[in-house]
Design goal:
Layout: E1 5-11, H1 15-23, H2 25-28, E2 33-34, E3 41-47, E4 51-61, E5 65-75, E6 88-96, E7 99-107, H3 116-137, H4 145-151
Antiparallel strand pairs: 1-7, 2-3, 3-4, 4-5, 5-6, 6-7
Organism: Paenibacillus chondroitinus
Family: Belongs to the AHA1 family.
Protein name: SRPBCC domain-containing protein
Length: 157
């Protein structure tokens, strides 16, 4: 059974518009990104001292697919600080009946992870909320970590 976290949605926009929005990581995930997010290579994400990670963009197929590999990761709220390390984040774009499907899968983010409920909830918010509205309305809601953290009661100790 595939236990990796996955979610999907459909939009009216073209695969190319979807691809461009996914690669505008500052527009939907976090404005605290260091490095380029629309070409092969690495970028870093940090949210206060709660989460930081280094991600390599390993695949960019225009209008079809984006793949990220998590090189390094740190969470301050779980025992295993490196839970995301060596996992892959995959965005698949498919045209279906005049709409474009966006399928997000975090390969390696599984229910046995301590961060699973917070992380899957966060991805759900960022992918189905922020990324979707960046694609459909031209504006996402990056930097929602604070709201998600407070909802889970994980404020800094």
């Amino acid at each position: 059974m595939n236990q990796n976290y996955t979610t999907a949605f459909n939009v009216e926009q073209s695969p190319d518009e979807v691809f461009a929005a996914i690669n505008n990581v500052r527009g939907w995930w976090s404005e605290d990104i260091e490095g380029k997010t629309d070409e092969l290579g690495e970028f870093k994400h940090q949210y206060q001292d709660i989460h930081r990670c280094t991600i390599a963009i390993t695949e960019l197929i225009p209008g079809k697919k984006v793949v990220w590999h998590v090189i390094d990761n740190y969470f301050n709220f779980v025992v295993d600080k490196s839970e995301w390390k060596d996992t892959d984040i995959i965005f698949e774009i498919t045209e279906k009946d005049g709409t474009t499907e966006v399928r997000f899968t975090h390969v390696g983010l599984v229910p046995s992870y301590e961060c699973y409920s917070v992380c899957s909830d966060s991805w759900g918010t960022y992918i189905n909320g922020s990324l979707r509205s960046l694609i459909t309305e031209g504006k996402g809601q990056p930097n929602q970590s604070e709201r998600i953290v407070n909802k889970h009661g994980l404020e800094n100790s």
